[in-house]
Amino acid sequence: MFQLGVETYATIVGKLESSFDIVRCSSVLYHLPNHMLMLNILRTITKEYLVLTSAITQEVIENKSGRYELPLSSVSFVPALSETERLCLKTHWERNGVVAYGITNLTTFSYNGTLVVVAYSSIFQSNVPICGFSSS
User: Burial level of 86, CB count in 10 A (0-12/13-18/19+)?
Assistant: First the structure.
């Protein structure tokens, strides 16, 4: 976002002079510290349809490396994962051919757009109506 001259979420609306029939937001929410604020901003620029995609995970993952359970109505902040939690997710996602920076590959996180959260589908399904969208 910073590379595009967007310093805050509110700047997005200020830079756009109109709304759009269809807005696509793909693989963005899990990089943002406040996805609800972004959903509200997307609502202000969307006339008809928001096409929203995001990486999600299962609520419970259990394998040889341990057990990871994502609490209901929450997300996990990847930089804050314990080594045991990260290893469990790493084992699961590598087995499924997924590369997830900070989990399958260690990385250094900073507040320049590399924030990552892990969520599951019901989080987004419950948040979308709150922001004025219907989901299908």
Answer: buried
Instruction: Give the length of the chain.
Output: 136
Cβ atoms within 10 Å, residue 48: 9
pLDDT band at 113, cuts 50/70/90? very low
Label residue 55 exposed, middle or buried (CB < 10 Å: 0-12, 13-18, 19+). Answer: middle
Classify residue 97: in a domain, yes or no: yes
Do both 63 and 102 map to the same domain?
yes
Least confident span in 6-10, 23-27, 74-78? 6-10
- Please report, for the chain, how many H helices and E strands are present, in that order: 4, 6
Q: What is the mean pLDDT of residues 79-99?
A: 89
Asked whether residue 45 falls in the same domain as residue 67, the answer is: no
CA atoms in the 13 A half-sphere facing the CB of 27: 2
Which two three-digit tokens encode residue 9? Answer: 């979420």
